[in-house]
Amino acid sequence: MQRLMSGILILGFISAAFCLKHNYETQIKYFNVMDYGGMAQLMIQIWIQIFNINGLTIDADGGIIDGNGGRNAEHAEGQHVKSLSMSNSPEAHIALIGCDGALVSHINIHSPPKSSNTDGFDIANSKNIVIEDSTLATGDDCIAINGGSSYINATRIFCIGGHGISGSLGRNKSNETVEEVYGQNCSFIGTTNGARIKTWPGGLGYARKITFEEIILQDAQNSIIINQYYNIKTLSEVL
């Protein structure tokens, strides 16, 4: 058992949306995509998708979404999501895109440890996001923090399997930034990484003011990893 206290990562490398004001509330009990149809013939990859909402509450009251590995992925874009279990998504489970002020808590995610692209949370172009008191067993990033994101707080998170909490910037030579990320009292069990920043060669931007503290690692391959040549197999690819 390793314990990492007050690890601070700051990286500069060579290599942003608000939601309209509405208030809705819904309660989800149990859904199985096999019962309702994957709609794969329409190439619909997103099962739950909410755009441009401010003040949304989704309270599942301990309900379950089971994708059974079908082609529909479970995503949610919103402001307050709590008490929800999700399993067997073929892709990312919850996406927060273009949101300001979202609170996500008491989420239980379970996907096979070798399932690719099954991120627990995908965050992009968002700010003031809090994810807390959740268990995320995935085959990919526990939490993926992408460009345009700031003031992201992950507290009391259990990451099981997968690649840990990752920041990903600069893909396709884009100019992206991430800043003010704070992870506290998070546990990484059987993950490839704890905290990771990965950047794609040729991109522009920065990742800064990123802090992890009171982190527990158990059977994790890398506690902290910064990779500025992500997805590069040979040196000739960057020359």
From TrEMBL:
One of its GO terms (molecular function) is polygalacturonase activity. InterPro entries: Glyco_hydro_28, Pectin_lyas_fold, Pectin_lyase_fold/virulence. Keywords: Cell wall, Cell wall biogenesis/degradation, Glycosidase, Hydrolase, Secreted, Signal. One of its GO terms (biological process) is carbohydrate metabolic process. Residues 1-19 form the signal peptide. It is found in: Secreted, Cell wall. Its main location: secreted. Belongs to the glycosyl hydrolase 28 family. This is Polygalacturonase. It comes from Vigna mungo. The lineage of its organism: Eukaryota, Viridiplantae, Streptophyta, Embryophyta, Tracheophyta.
